[in-house]
Amino acid sequence: MPEVRARARGPVAAAGGSLLPAAALALLTLLLLMSAAPSARAEGTARTPARDAAGPAFDIDGERIPTYDVVLTIRPDGVLRVRETITYDFDRNGEHGIVRRVRYRDRNRLFAIRDVRTSSSTGAPARAKTLHLLHDVQISVGDRHRKVRGRQAYVIEYEVGGAFTPYSGHDELTWDALGTGWDVPIGEAAARVEAPVPLRRATCRAGEPPATVPCLRDRDGPYAIDFTQRGLRPHEGMTVRVKLPKGAVAVPPPVYASPHWDATWQGTTALALALGAVAAVARRPPGRRVGAVMIGAGAVLVAADAADDAVAHGPWAFSLGDLCLMGLALAIVGAGAVCAGRNGAQGATDTRWEE
């Protein structure tokens, strides 16, 4: 029986070590899927476009947004000032408030969402709590200790820095005025654009990209344009695009972050070699202490790689490259050494006990 256990421990140790790289690769795949921008959807999954602005609003029982009014004020310094007035119908069970997600990262482009302020004209709790997620700033408005019911009105105000994109002949603003994170239908939506110069080239499209329809447009003088849309389904928004003459407003250079996944073939090769080394380590383990040191060194490399961009742009601006893959390679080999060493020590103990 001792010989049978000794033969079985080698394959078991190798199999246990091979699960570690599989788990690491699954984690990296999850990160890649999380970092994919929502705008990069396949055409086959596109939703039906929003109804025409002249069509009837949806009549759906339960929670909904009857009216959603947004004012986008373009300042001379290039900062976009946003004021959202949201009328929300809660069901009879009530909720603690609303949650608005504002995108601050579009692929690798970064926007600065700052100076968030909230209020309520109906007396509902309107304390704001912000949380940076992978691509959005989550603005929670309400009170977790108190529920609200019926129709309530909220106002969310914030500034957006770095929203303009400079081109050779003009500067352009493209902004989703409502966001596409709402799980309820929106009856009447309006987006008003105000600028310090005459607005000659401004458009709006409603729906969920790539299936969108033009919004109804109404000019209010040379410096303001109103766009309206009725009957938006859940996760449909209004994307406003404004082109201004060069020099009309100050436009700083856009800010970009490194991709979440930025590895090259060198790091991939190091990880592949680590996978091959697990079997050799299982046969001749260098010792659990050496394995623990390798795991610690690998963790330091992964943390250093993730923190490089996160320190400058926030926790969700991490970029994993070759340093991360090399750290994973060390950790995988170290984990294999620890597992093999532990199994070997246990096998020696069993053999002495049976003798």
From TrEMBL:
UniProt keyword annotation of Signal present: yes
Record keywords: Signal
Domain DUF2207: 64-243
InterPro entries: DUF2207 (IPR018702)
Top-level division of the source organism's lineage: Bacteria
Signal peptide: 1-42
Name of this chain's protein: DUF2207 domain-containing protein
Organism: Actinomadura yumaensis
